[in-house]
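Raw record, unedited: Thioesterase superfamily protein
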Amino acid sequence: MARDSRWDIDVPFYIEIEVGEGDIDHLDHVNNSVYPKYMERAAWAHTLALGLDWDAYVSLDAACVVRRHELDYLIAAKIGDRLQVATWIGDNDGRVSMWRYFQMRRAVDGRTIFRARTQYVTVCLSNGRPCRMPPAFVEAYAPVDDV
């Protein structure tokens, strides 16, 4: 088997997750519905690392909500696997919409097991309607150059 020890971009932000018993389905691998949970954990960790937390969202009266997911399941993950869940901003229109990318690898061999991208739109917390991104979002969620 070929080994893929590369990230899709230079030096991505990532977290590590160990696959637990509750993530496994009847096929003895991570259930498809669990991967978006891993993505959410990585996205929030990245958002915090970029200097935005929930209190900042509240004070800005703005949040990012999912509009669309595109998911590619490449190799099954099993119980006990240590996964590196990377995320980065690939595109941001500076108005309402941005795309966040994900890549998951097995830590033991660097093989990419999953790729995804998610489109987020900015909404006002006070009314739930789409709104223009606050300048803090445009700055923090700047796209990386090498996508």
